Amino acid sequence: MPTFKTLDDLDDLTGKVALVRVDLNLPMHDGSVTDATRVEASAPTILELADKGAKVLLLAHFGRPRGQRSSVLSVSMTLDAVQAVLGREVMFIPEVQGPVVEQSIGILRPGDIGMLENTRFWPGEEANDMAFARGIAAHGDIYVNDAFSAAHRAHASTEALAHLLPAYAGRAMEAELKALDAALGTPKAPVAAVVGGAKVSTKLAVLENLVGRVQHLIIGGGMANTFLAARGVDVGKSLCEHDLAETVNRIMDQADHAGCTVHLPYDVVVATEFAANPASLRTCNVHEVGADEMILDVGPQAVEALADVLKTCRTLVWNGPMGAFEIEPFDTATVALARTAAALTQDGSLVSVAGGGDTVAALNHAGVASDFTYVSTAGGAFLEWMEGRELPSVVALQA
Ligand code: ADP
Ligand code: MG
Predict the structure, then answer these.
(1) Atom 24 (ligand 1): residue with closest C-alpha?
(2) How far apart are CA 18 and CA 21, in angstroms?
(3) 334 plus 235 within the same structural domain
(4) CA of 357 to the centre of ligand 2 (A)
(5) Distance, CA 322 to ligand 1 centroid (Å)?
């Protein structure tokens, strides 16, 4: 496990200023926040620091203002939601450095919480500019990063600050890093990876990283069609990237050399139109797909075999649904496999970590998200981690 400092390394912070990078890039509709999950994730960190006596200053980006002030992209749009989740008053401070910040800190008492303006109003944020970061760091005594979802970006508030102040992982960051390490860093073998979703092209780097790290690579979703087609299977009208046949065959070779078994479906659920419970719905062997049919889900026999594979594994990492789960009954394989993984996790035989926008939605749909060991809501950062890349803000925390 890579080492980084956590809130456990902090004692009394009375009178100290904690600069806390959080994720306030919340989904909005008509000017109000529609989902405050990201705030809920960081609430324990914020409250723990406040309860230790710190003056807590939240730092975050909001949207893409591209280095300019924009009234509609003020992070204060999230203020009501943040106060509601924390159950505390939060003082909005319309700058990230300078006299206004200094005066505001003077007004805050130990344990109070402030929210600095959208870091991306200043070009120095995305440029990871040291001078800009120094201007922010000047107001703080410690830096806490609790925004794993922004960890793949080397920006002033996610990377440079960690070099300028004593730096700590917040509780959400700590949980995420521990879960990811348990899944792919130092996992218990055998390890299975489920990779599904629409396209191979968006997850090439993920597949290439995984074949060298896992013993079982389970391919589902639209990308299974590309694998099947590369093996000479006629996939009819299925979503398929025929031009990637060579790439897929190279990945299969890499898997072979690394001793990784690639599992492709041998039965599938097909239909001639993409609609709920269509009349044309049928289950067939992959070699029996009609010219006018689309593969929209993995078949029941394959799901049963895959469940047996999971039963032999100690660790599972999952990204991408097995089928077009948004429309019934093409959610069947995803739901069944997710429930198997959840049950094995609850039995204590499997460590299960999942991530990805649609994957999280699919696990919620299956009603098992809370039965997995860990579900990451950090889209881009989670995928980059699955690609085996170092995340700049995590590296900075370890420095
Ligand atoms: P994530 O967001 O979890 O990384 P992706 O965005 O890669 O996942 O993929 C999710 C999408 O893949 C879903 O919209 C789903 O409908 C689609 N999909 C899965 N299987 C198929 C299939 N057989 N044919 C067409 N689309 C599919
Ligand atoms: Mg997606």
Answers:
(1) 222
(2) 10
(3) yes
(4) 5
(5) 8
Nearest-atom number in ligand 1 for the CA of 224 is 23
Q: Does some domain include residue 396? A: no
How far apart, in whole angstroms, are the C-alpha atoms of residue 342 and residue 352? 8
Neighbours of 42 (CB within 10 A): 27
Look at residue 142 and tell me if it is in a domain. Answer: yes
pLDDT score of 1 more than 70: no
pTM: 0.91
**Residue list, ligand 1 pocket, CB within 6 Å:** 196-198, 202, 221-222, 239, 295-296, 319-321, 323-324, 326, 356-359
148-188 pLDDT, tens digit each: 999 999 999 999 999 999 999 999 999 999 999 999 888 99
Region 235-252 average pLDDT: 97
Burial class (CB in 10 A: 0-12, 13-18, 19+), 24: buried
Listed residues 116, 145, 173: the one ending a domain: 173
Domain extent for 156: 7-173
Q: How do residues 96-125 score in pLDDT, each as one tens digit?
A: 999 999 999 999 999 999 999 999 999 999
Burial class (CB within 10 angstroms; exposed 0-12, middle 13-18, buried 19+) of 15: exposed
Arithmetic mean of pLDDT over the chain: 96
Please report which ligand is nearest the Cα atom of 236: 1
Q: How many domains does the chain have?
A: 2
CA distances from 31 to 57, 68, 75, 95, 133 (A): 23, 20, 11, 21, 30
One domain for residues 270 and 169: no
Residue 48, number of CB atoms within 10 A of its CB: 18
What's the pLDDT tens digit per position in 249-274?
Answer: 999 999 999 999 999 999 999 999 99
